[in-house]
Specification:
Blueprint: H1 3-56, E1 58-59, E2 69-70, H2 74-80, H3 83-113, H4 121-128, H5 136-146, H6 153-160, H7 172-200, H8 204-212, H9 217-245, H10 249-254, H11 266-275, H12 280-305
Antiparallel strand pairs: 1-2
Helix pairs in contact: 1-12, 2-12, 3-7, 3-9, 3-11, 5-7, 7-9, 9-12, 11-12
Length: 308
């Protein structure tokens, strides 16, 4: 083989090696950028989840023992026959269903109302979002004062209407109603902003065609707006439901779970067993059941969203 041929082969090999290097660098570079974020996410999110799952399989009362004792599914079996847990779960689900339904109705109605331009509409829409930015603890404290039987605003207006004062946070039914009212006030703008964004993205040609065909506003709403908005509605319900399942600070501040256990939602029940009774194994198991319920509900709605 002559010298020229050798040089050509060496040059081609060099190009091949250089190409492999660039190909490798192209593949590995994205992981180099994402790697630190994934590591941080694993430390902050994944590790606590796995650790709490491990603790849920142990008996561990931090006041009585220094090390967890392996009991397998013992905590989960204990939950199955624990009436207090099922009562707390029932209250949690009732709270979620009632609050989310009312928030959806109010948010949808206001979104329909504001789905048009008028003088000051942008400022009005911005002001409607203010309750979302109120911290849950601040909201809970505010409504605790509002429902105060002596100097609260709620009883002030009731007395002006001649209906008489109510011990809002001292009776089981009214206390449960109070925490729902608080949640509706704070979170209905969340539904509003999602549904308003969905309405703004709907094709205007469809509504113009319905108007030309003589469809009434009610028929347009029922047969066009709601079906087209279904994916957005389901997304809003999923996000709000998952958030409502872990509602805790505002309820704890308002009632502490009382009177009795009338407002002891599952989130409050878990907190009490974790940080009042220091029963970490039971609290972790109950937390995972709450997560499992959220996953089942989310999976059902997502499948329904894409069902033809």
């Amino acid at each position: 083989m002559d010298t020229l041929s050798k040089k050509i082969i060496e040059w081609s090999n060099g190009i091949s090696q250089h190409g492999k290097y660039h190909y490798f660098r192209k593949k590995i570079t994205p992981f180099a950028f994402v790697g630190p974020a994934l590591l941080l996410l694993g430390i902050v999110l994944l590790y606590p989840l796995l650790y709490s799952l491990k603790i849920s399989l142990h008996q561990w009362n931090m006041l009585e023992q220094s090390e967890p004792i392996w009991i397998g599914l013992g905590n989960y079996l204990r939950i199955l026959g624990f009436e207090e847990f099922w009562s707390a779960l029932g209250l949690q689900l009732s709270f979620v269903v009632i609050a989310v339904i009312f928030e959806l109705i109010i948010g949808f109605a206001v979104a329909i109302l504001f789905n048009r331009e008028f003088w000051g509409s942008q400022v009005a829409r911005a002001l409607l979002l203010l309750p979302i930015f109120v911290l849950p603890v601040v909201s809970g404290m505010t409504f605790r004062f509002i429902f105060n039987p002596q100097y609260g605003a709620a009883n002030f207006f009731l007395e002006k209407l001649g209906l008489g004062a109510i011990e809002w946070l001292s009776h089981p039914k009214t206390a449960f109603m109070a925490i729902i009212i608080q949640d509706i006030w704070r979170m209905w703008p969340f539904m509003f902003i999602i549904l308003y964004a969905g309405l703004s993205g709907l094709p205007k040609e469809t509504f113009e065609a319905a108007y030309l065909d003589g469809a009434s506003k009610w028929n347009t709403l029922v047969h066009i707006t709601i079906p087209l908005l279904k994916p957005t509605i389901l997304i809003a319900i999923i996000l709000r439901t998952v958030d409502a399942l872990k509602a805790f600070p505002e309820i704890f501040v308002m009632t502490g779970g009382g009177p009795g256990t009338s407002t002891t939602l599952l989130s409050v029940h878990i907190y009490k067993y974790a940080f009042n009774f220091w029963d970490m194994g039971y609290a972790s198991a109950a937390s995972y059941i709450l997560v499992f319920i959220a996953l089942i509900f989310t999976t059902f709605l997502v499948k329904n969203m894409y069902r033809e």
